Amino acid sequence: MPTSGDASGALPHVVLLPSAGMGHLVPFSRLAVSLTSSGHGCGVSVATVLPTVSSAESAHLEALFGACPAVRRLDFHLAQFDASEFPGADPFFLRFEAMRRSAPLLGPLLAGASASALVTDIALASVVIPVAKELRLPCYVLFTASAAMLSLCVHFPAYLDANAGGPVGDVDVPGVYRIPKASIPQALHHPEHLFTRQFVANGRELAKADGLLVNSFDAFEPEAISALRDGSVAVGFPPVFSVGPLAPVSFSAGEPAENQPDYIRWLEAQPARSVVYVSFGSRKAISKDQLRELAVGLEASGHRFLWVVKSTIVDRDDEAELSELLGEGFLERVQGRGMVTKGWVEQEEVLKQESIGLFISHCGWNSVTEAAANGLPILAWPRFGDQRVNAGVVARSGLGVWEERWSWEGEEGVVSGDNIAEKVKAVMADETVRKKAVCVQDAAAKAVADGGTSYSSVAQFVQQCRDLS
Ligand code: UDP
Ligand code: UDP
After folding, report:
1. What is the DSSP letter of 79?
2. Annotated catalytic, 155?
3. Which of 24, 40, 155, 303 does the annotation list as catalytic?
4. 356 to 18, 270, 276, 348, 436: CA distances (angstroms)
């Protein structure tokens, strides 16, 4: 170790190790496809844990391996894990923990795979980096959220050390900016929380990685990316490759029009920029009371809308009827101008539609990068975890607006339908917001074009893998 995956010794074989949840799997599969493309030409395997937590992940993996034979599957069998140690914990965090405890099993797996480099997920970093070091295998981390969040992850252990057990307040990330207390992920206010323990351990170990890849681009997050690179956040921090926005992988390309899902056919029939797309991602449920108010708000806004409703954390558990969730008569009243679904939509196909004018988003980082690539304004309604930090990036960059007073998981109260309707009407009518979002799209296109900052970052990463292999 390391050995090159290619007989000629020219092509590095990169093993990718995502953790759990679509927010992590999606950018990993995008990176996998990008690395196998002719421009970069690496051999790629994706370490896969089956069964997955959600059905969305299992459908995604099947589509990835079916559509992209150049990406190989490497089965990672986890050790037995007793979840009863963490009663009530989020099923995705439990999978992180099960994977972390199985890290010693990676040694033989990677040795057998003739890997020349490993790219792991932030949630696994502190346990996987030592295994790779032991094998003398170069190890990188793909950070699946914003560079601002990465800077917080790197700085947070030092913040806690200096804070000597005091309550977590605003965190001033050196060289970046001050992240207000209210934007710090909920769990990080509780030192004993499973997520916090993992987050701090990962943050401490990151400096030992051979490099960090982040799904962002220089013009989008100039402060955080430069501060990570110039050592302001942490002295001697490894190279940071800003490779975003990673291009979506279309599994439905070439499908005849009659096989298009009904929501795409409906969107195609709507006037340009007339539809509000509403989605809070794949990970979290919204309370029933808040869902009702959102329904009232969308109806009162008078605009067309496509709304993906999620009422449970894991999709397999979702059995509630839409009519029961949204209130009597709602679906009938909005028929023709509103589409509501509980199923999975191909979001990257949705965001490409000309009829979409606004994205009400929880600001999961993949959603933000997809909106940036499509020049689609966001009305940010972060709910949980890293989403307020990401919403801060949306507001700073001009990609959209953030209604900061809107509630956050764990806070009292619901946002009223009237409030939502008013805001939707205002942002839909705001030409300045729209123009700024298009500027972000132009900058994103420049970054990923041949010679752009993100294109060059991927090329530098591949070169470093070659040099180290
Ligand atoms: N997504 C999708 N259809 C859905 C819900 C989500 O295609 O119905 C995709 C979305 O495009 C994004 C990913 O799943 O690529 C979700 O990641 P994100 O970081 O936006 O949010 P998370 O789900 O992790 O909160
Ligand atoms: N994260 C991190 N360190 C960790 C685990 C997660 O920095 O040890 C980041 C992760 O990239 C994301 C945020 O913390 O920005 C929330 O992670 P989670 O997996 O809960 O969110 P998801 O992306 O699945 O919505």
Report:
1. P
2. no
3. 24
4. 31, 9, 6, 12, 16
Q: Is 121 a catalytic residue?
A: yes
Higher pLDDT, 13 or 10: 13
**Which SS3 state, helix, strand or coil, does residue 64 take?**
helix
- In short, whether 21's Cβ falls inside 6 Å of ligand 1 is yes
Both tokens of 214, joined, read 């982040």
390 against 4, higher pLDDT: 390
Rg (CA), the chain: 22
Rounded to an integer, what distance in angstroms lies between the CA atom of residue 399 and that of residue 381?
14
Report the candidate in 371, 398, 396, 368 with the shortest Cα–Cα distance to residue 382. Answer: 368
Closest-lying ligand to the alpha carbon of 124?
Answer: 2
Q: Is the dihedral angle over the CA atoms 280, 282, 284, 290 positive or is it negative? A: positive
Whether the predicted interface score ipTM is above 0.90: no
Q: What is the mean pLDDT of residues 58-70?
A: 93
Which amino acid type is present at position 229? Answer: R
- C-alpha separations of 349 from 82, 206, 249, 433 in Å: 39, 35, 10, 22
Residue whose CB lies within 8 A of the most ligand 1 atoms, among 24, 26, 340, 345, for a mutation test: 26
Tokens of 108: 């033989």
